[in-house]
Design brief:
Elements (H helix, E strand, L loop, with lengths): L1 H7 L8 H17 L31 E6 L5 E3 L2 E3 L1 H23 L10 E9 L5 H13 L2 E6 L8
Length: 160
């Protein structure tokens, strides 16, 4: 009986080292994902981006990317010129044609790419006061021309 009494008096102390290791690895992983710079690609002082905890688009230059800026009135910016909705439709068609010609030059005399979706990633930087309808109309106009991959940019909400 003395040996049985001795075992029951022992307390179990779990080893927390593996748990702490995992927690520290997760903290390190999420710290590496944080974008510490406030400088964004194609920044424009006239555009006030919405705030949200969102990831920024990758900086891999192997992808064809088209950065588009939208102001509070829903106009797209091409260079220094603002385009209304009708002019924007023409602009989307021109951008799609330019990219299709580039793909045709790369592929050669392969299958037609008129109906194929374009591999271009469209990055839309819309003003935070732009209406959802104007953003949706811009995306629909781009989709009508074959653009299918989109990234919407927002500012990361800073902890205070």
């Amino acid at each position: 009986m003395p040996s049985h009494h001795r075992r029951s008096s022992l307390s179990l102390n779990p080893n927390l080292t593996p748990l702490l290791d995992v927690v520290l690895q997760l903290i390190t992983f999420f710290m590496m994902l944080v974008h510490f710079s406030s400088r964004l690609e194609g920044a424009n002082k006239a555009i006030r981006l919405p705030l949200a905890p969102a990831a920024l688009p990758g900086s891999d230059l192997t992808f064809d990317r088209l950065t588009v800026t939208m102001d509070a009135q829903g106009r797209l910016q091409d260079g220094g010129q603002w385009l209304g909705e009708e002019m924007a439709s023409t602009w989307w068609a021109q951008q799609a044609q330019i990219r299709r010609e580039g793909l045709k030059a790369i592929r050669g005399n392969g299958p037609s790419i008129e109906s194929d979706e374009l591999p271009t990633i469209v990055i839309l930087r819309a003003d935070r006061t732009a209406s959802y309808g104007s953003v949706r109309r811009a995306l629909a106009a781009a989709q009508d021309q074959g653009f299918a991959h989109f990234s919407l940019i927002v500012l990361r909400r800073h902890a205070r």
